[in-house]
Design goal:
35% of the residues lie in helices and 16% in strands. It is of the alpha+beta class and 98 residues long.
Amino acid sequence: MVDIGVDVFDRPQRLRIDAADAGRSWSKRRHLGGVTVQLVSGYRSLEYQGRFNSGNVESGKSIDEILTRIAAPGYSEHQGGCAVDVASPGVGSVNRDV
C-alpha cells in the first residue's frame, strides 16, 4: 500500500501500488477534460466498512437500501486497496466521515 494523499475529510488515504498508478494515469486524463474530481475514500479496513454500514443502519436506512450502494464488509474492493470513491463539487457523496 502507498499513500495517495488526503480525502475531502482531510483523512490520509492509501491504495495498492498498481491501483495508485492507475489512479494517477486517470487523474491526468480527467484534468485534460476539465473535470474536477475529489477523493472521498480509498482503502477501508474490514472494521471501518462495518462501522460505515452500521452508521447507515442507525440513520434509518434498510440493509437492502444500503447494499445497493455500499458493499458489505468482506466484499468491498476498498478492503483490498483497489478502489476509490470520488465526487465532484456540487454533487453529493454516499460517504460521510465515520
